[in-house]
Amino acid sequence: MNISQASSLLRIKQQNGLTLIELLIALVLVLFLLGGVILIHLSGRATFIDTERLSRIQENVRFASDYVIRDIRNAGFRDETFLKAGHESQIREAYATLLTNDVVDTDGEGETLRIRYAGRGHCTQAFDEFRLVENEYSMDSTTGELVCKGRSIPQESSGSLLIGDEDWDDAVGLVGGLTDIEFQLICPPGVTDCGCDMRNNLDESCIGVRVAMQFEGMRAMDGTGDFDDRSVELTAAFRNVILERVNADVEEF
């Protein structure tokens, strides 16, 4: 082997592998591509979470409209044929009550709603027998759920037995994802401040309630990762109270 061939072989050996600079450049490119893949994955995951959250909100609103509002509409319902006189009067005198921090609220707005009616069960009991029912709706701040608890008096009980003295059953969760809830009484036309007492003041008795629910909504667009709250307002008319008012007007006419 002459000197020229040895020099060529040495240059070939020196060209094997990559230089440090080439390795660094390749590493940067790999990290850049990997970052793009991760960003696409996170964006897709955020979109999936938002879609699931929106679907859950829509499902909760449908359930609230179907079950909760339908139950609230029963407020004031009674059938004197099956109820003792004392039970019937308990419904008429307090078919709907608002509370704030467990104290009766007289301002027409509250975070808790209680309703009374005659029916075959309540939100925590089977629909197996006719009874005097009181249901309470509120938000559990720990779980973020709309919860309901109930108590009742059997049909055959003495009319002097007060439902307010009965123990509440354990609350059950109905709608999740809540961040706030508020109930507001609906007064008759021309009345700005109303109670819910058909027995002593039918003309100014409340005829319904608005339910304002706030849900944890979609992801904010400012990139903070926070979620915008979504508000939903539902209305429940106390049909039995309205019918009572109509019948009273017909009798007067």
Given helix and strand content, the structural type is: alpha+beta
Q: Give the low-pLDDT segments.
A: none
- Give the strand tally: 10
**Number of DSSP helical runs:** 4
Largest sheet features: 6 strands, antiparallel
Q: Strand arrangement, largest sheet?
A: 2-1-4-5-6-7
User: What is the ordering of alpha helices and beta strands?
Assistant: HHHEEEEEEEEEEH
Rounded mean pLDDT is: 81
Bin the strand percentage: 25-35%
Rounded radius of gyration (Å): 33 Å
What overall geometry do the principal axes of the alpha carbons give? elongated
End-to-end CA span = 129 Å
Highlighted features:
35% helix; alpha+beta; 253 residues; 29% strand
Topology:
Elements: H1 3-14, H2 20-72, H3 85-93, E1 96-100, E2 103-104, E3 109-110, E4 112-119, E5 131-140, E6 145-154, E7 172-175, E8 178-186, E9 208-219, E10 227-237, H4 239-252
Antiparallel strand pairs: 1-2, 1-4, 3-8, 4-5, 5-6, 6-7, 8-9, 9-10
Structure description:
The chain is of the alpha+beta class and 253 residues long. The chain has one domain (44-252). The chain has helices at residues 3-14, 20-72, 85-93, 239-252, and strands at 96-100, 103-104, 109-110, 112-119, 131-140, 145-154, 172-175, 178-186, 208-219, 227-237. It has a 6-stranded antiparallel beta sheet. The model has no long low-confidence stretch (mean pLDDT 81).
